Structures are given as structure tokens and as C-alpha cells.
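Record 1 of the preview.
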Amino acid sequence: MLALSFNMSVNFKLSIKVFRRRGEVNPDGWGIAFYPDEAAVVIKEPASSIGSRLFNFLMSYSEVSSRIFIAHVRLASRGEIAYKNTHPFIRELNGRDYVFAHNGTIRDYKRFRLGRFKPIGETDSEYIFCHLLSEIERRGVVSWSREDFSWLHGKFRALNKYGSLNCLLSDGEYLFAYHDIEGYNGLHYVWRGSPFSKVKLLDEDFEIDLQEIKDPGERGYVIATKPLTSEEWLSFTPGELVVLRNGEIVYRSSMPKLSSEEVNVLKFIRESPHRVSLKMISSEYSLPIDHARDIIRRLLCKGLIKQDSRDRVGWSSQDATFYTNPPLRDEIDHLLYL
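->
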């Protein structure tokens, strides 16, 4: 699985180019969903992405852009190789297009009740998607809240008791990423923001300078089952739900592990009455600027801090300033002081 969440519409070519190679070991279908506006577009094919002429067309079509992308390659475990069984799946609820993709297998999945949403194909994945939508409708979720995020996490955990569950869900505004409680198949993420660096594609024998192909205003996350590039990807905690909006983490069901240095810098930022610069952090802890920069990068990636929007420099400048991520402050305070 692959997902992108950015603060602005971006082209998916780089990530999808590397992701395509996963079709070699997952040859039973591929699909991509994105949101050019409020409505979702889903393009999929019950065949390997390797050698697909439709996939080649998408790679050459420069107008494919969105804040959110969800992509999936399928290794069939239940249901025939057919379009109806190919991920991602899509349904409308409350005027929003929900999209869903799943890795894993849920046993005895028909024990979960359905409402008005019914599966078309034969997969456990589409069935549990319909179940989740029915539960969301029954709860009356129209505008997502922190309480709703916590409730949805409980629903994922309940499903996870009956098998393996890595899944991606989006309504076009939020991207929900859940990692299996037993750590099945892995789930990783990386944060990208200007200034961008050179990266090596793990499945390709060449390097790409992101600075040349990225807009300076782009920032956000790439989520994948396995790391796609030479960047420092972080692992989800097993059983964790992460929610993203406009390229920022707005909810984590569990806090990521932090080094002692990360805790100290995070506490310094949290307790400061004003935004804190990279230069101030370097001076406060007598750290070389490059070392302080690396700590800041990791805290940015984990979604615990944000760069001030008034800055006129990139996040890696010594004059860049930071503050703790408001939606996560309760969790940050619990981590730091309890």
C-alpha cells in the first residue's frame, strides 16, 4: 500500500514509480485513488502493474495531482482476480467519497454487520469497508472530531482481532492509516519539506534530486508498507492509528518513541513562551547545528512540532522557528510531564 498526504496538490509520479515495482510480487491487481477536488477518482486494473499500458499512461499524464493519494497492489487471498475485487474501493457517504485499501486477511468477516452499504465483490476487504462505513453512518459522523478518531481506532482494533489489518481510509479531507496490532507486513512513513534532498530509489538504480522536482511550498507525508527511498523512514507502532490532514498529523492513537535528546528539545519548545529557532536549540544544549537540525527533522517527521508559517526560510535554516503541534499537545504534555 502507498498513501500521500500533502498541504497542496502534488504530482504522484516519483512515489508511484517506485511503488510500481511491488507489482512483481503482488501481480493480481493494482489501483490508484486521488481527489482532484471533493470527488475521488479511482483507476484500477485486475492485472500486474508491471507492463501495464494503463499504468504507463498514468505515468505520462502530467495532470494527475491531488493532496491525497492511495495506491494498492494486490496479491489475491480471497476472491477471483477481477476488477470488482481490486483495491482501492470507493463509496459515497454524507456527500463525501470514501476510499479504502487493505493488506491482510480478516477471518469470519461476515460476523460484522452491514447497513445500506453492500459489497460488490468477494473480498473480506470490501466487506469490512462496507461495515466501517455503516458504523460511521450509524455514529452520525459528518465532521470528524478527536473523539471520532478515537472511536474509529476502536473499530479498527475490533476488526484486527480476527486477522491481519493494515489499511488506508480517506474521505478526501482526512487520511486514516492503521497498522496491524501484530505488526503484519510493516507500515512506514516519511516527512518531506523544503529544502528537499537527493534520494536514492531503493528498487531503481538511480538517484533523484527532490529539490528539482518539488515545489518549495510542498510539505507532507508519504506512507508505504515498505520504505521506498533512502530517506530515514519511521515505523508505525503496531496497533496505531495516525490521522493526517493537509499534510500534517492531527491525531496519533499512541505516541512515537523518542530519544532523550528529542524529549529535551521537545520540552524546551513546549515550555518556551515564544517560537523557538534552530539556532536557539543549538545554543541551549551546546549542540552542533547539524545535530540540532537532525533532532528537529525527527520531531517534524513524528508530527510533534511545526515550523512557524511566518518564517521566510526552510525548516533546516538556523533561523527557522518551531512550536509544538496544537492537536497533539495533550498527548505531548502527557508524555513530558506524567
